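Q: I'm building a small set of examples for a reading group on sequence design. Run inverse folding on the following structure and report the sequence directly after it, with nothing in between.
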């Protein structure tokens, strides 16, 4: 079966995303398929998934909403909006300060900004969150959730950086005027950090930062890997940069006639198995979307086979 036909024969969410991202056709899944299954697990009495805000992983409200956003749930969906209110109230109720000298984890802050912007939260309610992530950007252009545990720390974490960059990109896409130029500059500085590492490599060394980052995982949760970074650049419409080449070569080497492996599962509870079998439609869709953006010749070869 051709890879595009295989994607279109999958769950309604995957098929709709493939039509929109790869075929550039208007497409709506109307919250069917996987999204509908997640919505059935929502508790309207507590406005939570999994009985918790951030834990248990990965069935908590926070991580369920991250999955729903990646599947492009309609942001006006009542369950999404009700749960978003809970997240903002519980995670951001006192504007970062959890305890004395203890701030909200920066990974969570980035993901929360991402979810809130997608949910069309008014900018008046986003200002303090934007201030927070801009305030604690590291000297190297990225972010690190341990910035206050070690005050002299000057090196960022790619896990934290990708979470914040995705949130800032969602904010920038909404074209909010508040600190617009600073957000744009922070995005570019963060992108430059990842490009200096050739997406997934140690500085000045031709080897992965961590072997796990050279493997694609879906859902990525808060974890960083090379495909998540490439997908971010594609979503940003970032111009091609030759420093992407190693990651793009790794991506192509990981594919089999256009099909991408399902990827390793991160330990933790899930609502239900998303995919079975060796190959994964979500990873395949993401990989093809990246190639369509940065290597159109190779993309055409694999989709026309």
């Amino acid at each position: 079966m051709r890879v595009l036909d295989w994607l279109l024969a999958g769950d309604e969410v995957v098929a709709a995303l493939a039509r929109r991202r790869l075929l550039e056709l208007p497409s709506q899944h109307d919250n069917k398929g996987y999204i509908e299954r997640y919505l059935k697990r929502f508790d309207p009495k507590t406005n939570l998934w999994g009985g918790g805000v951030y834990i248990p992983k990965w069935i908590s409200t926070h991580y369920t909403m991250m999955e729903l956003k990646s599947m492009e749930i309609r942001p006006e969906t009542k369950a999404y909006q009700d749960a978003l209110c809970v997240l903002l109230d519980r995670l951001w109720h006192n504007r970062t300060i959890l305890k004395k000298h203890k701030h909200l984890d920066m990974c969570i802050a980035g993901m929360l900004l991402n979810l809130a912007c997608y949910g069309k939260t008014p900018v008046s309610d986003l200002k303090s969150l934007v201030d927070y992530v801009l305030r604690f950007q590291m000297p190297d252009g990225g972010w690190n959730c341990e910035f206050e545990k070690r005050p002299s720390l000057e090196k960022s974490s790619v896990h934290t950086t990708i979470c914040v960059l995705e949130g800032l990109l969602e904010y920038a896409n909404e074209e909010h005027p508040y600190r617009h130029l600073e957000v744009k500059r922070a995005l570019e500085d963060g992108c430059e950090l990842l490009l200096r590492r050739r997406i997934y490599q140690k500085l000045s060394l031709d080897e992965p930062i961590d072997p796990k980052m050279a493997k694609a995982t879906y859902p990525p949760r808060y974890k960083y890997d090379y495909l998540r970074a490439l997908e971010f650049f594609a979503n940003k419409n970032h111009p091609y940069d030759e420093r992407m080449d190693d990651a793009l070569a790794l991506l192509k080497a990981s594919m089999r006639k256009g099909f991408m492996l399902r990827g390793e599962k991160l330990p933790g509870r899930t609502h239900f198995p998303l995919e079975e079998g060796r190959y994964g439609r979500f990873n395949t869709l993401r990989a093809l979307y990246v190639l369509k953006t940065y290597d159109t010749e190779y993309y055409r070869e694999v989709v026309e086979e």
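The longest strand covers residues 97-99.
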